[in-house]
Design brief:
Structural class: mainly alpha
Number of strands: 4
Number of domains: 2
Largest sheet: 2 strands, antiparallel
CATH architecture of the largest domain: Up-down Bundle
Shape: globular
Strand order of the largest sheet: 1-4
Order of helices and strands: EHHHEEHHHHEHH
Radius of gyration: 17 Å
Distance between the termini: 19 Å
CATH class of the largest domain: Mainly Alpha
Length: 235
């Protein structure tokens, strides 16, 4: 078996800032001022309210969307879903400040690789032109984000919007819920570890390669690429 690739392991220079943005947005969602199905304030309004860049707001919203709390509707805005904040004892959640070990991270990598593989393998058999076009548009939008903020890899290195979109298009509710839980744990664990696993430009190219395999309905290559994308070594 060939050696696995290694994650780039980009140190998070502003962990407290990004976590603060996530917490403030989570508090807004939990406050009751926005009901399920209602639209959030615009990125510009949130940026001005929190005093951070729109790129940081956009990436934080993607994190919350990947965990199932939000839904982005093209041309309309971002909406609160019917999902509520996780309750203790439901799923696996990391308490802030709990700390994580390298062994824990390796176990998490294996778990996420298995779930993503199941989702992508299933979708590769039923992908269509409409879904592929949606994924291509998403990748292009994400690329514009990291071009606008190319110095801050920690803002995009945990972006799971591509994988979440594939799960949405796949329409397997059970796998989607499992993915949402593992995504939330993935994000919180890497933040506690003090790194983002990969550079944004690497994620972008890997997503493009997976997309082309999906478009060709090459299930074997899709599986190989998504596993390589997630299942890497930690230095």
């Amino acid at each position: 078996m060939p050696d696995k690739n290694k994650f780039s392991m980009v140190p998070i220079k502003r962990t407290d800032v990004f976590q603060t943005i996530i917490k403030q947005l989570s508090d807004l969602l939990d406050s009751g001022n926005i009901n399920a199905g209602e639209r959030l304030p615009s990125e510009r309004e949130l940026s001005e309210s929190l005093g951070v860049s729109r790129t940081s707001i956009r990436q934080a919203l993607k994190v919350l969307e990947a965990s199932g709390r939000l839904e982005t509707r093209v041309g309309s805005g971002t909406y609160l879903t019917h999902n509520r904040a996780p309750h203790p004892g439901v799923g696996i959640y990391l308490q802030p400040g709990a700390g994580v070990t390298k062994e824990f991270m390796q176990q998490l990598i294996v778990a996420r690789a298995g779930i993503e593989r199941a989702i992508f393998e299933e979708y590769s058999r039923k992908s269509n032109r409409g879904g592929i076009n949606q994924l291509r548009t998403l990748i292009e939008d994400n690329a514009r984000d990291f071009i606008d903020d190319e110095e801050n890899d920690e803002n995009g290195g945990l972006d799971l919007s591509f994988e979440s979109k594939v799960a949405e298009l796949n329409q397997n509710v059970i796998l989607s819920h499992l993915q949402q839980q593992i995504h939330q744990l993935w994000i919180s664990a890497w933040n506690e570890y003090g790194f983002v696993p990969e550079k944004k430009i690497v994620l972008h190219q890997e997503h493009l390669n997976i997309l082309e395999a999906l478009a060709a309905k090459n299930s074997g290559r899709v599986v190989d690429l998504i596993v390589q994308h997630v299942d890497k070594e930690i230095d």
